Amino acid sequence: xxxxxxxxxxxxxxxxxxxxxxxxxxxxxxxxxxxxxxxxxxxxxxxxxxxxxxxxxxxxxxxxxxxxxxxxxxxxxxxx
Length: 80
What we know:
The protein is of the alpha+beta class and 80 residues long.
């Protein structure tokens, strides 16, 4: 099954429990790739049909697919 990259945002009160929540995400089929507990973020991959389950984990404020941002090519006329 194809996996998607996801961003999990933790509730403010759950930031100190990011390791435990990461473990719980793993039990729900998420491959945790990195954590930023000070920002309340966990990055990982999971099957698309697991996203709703992930969002329902205690301490999770939001779980969404990771987006993509494309910048225009660099040139002297376009500020970056």
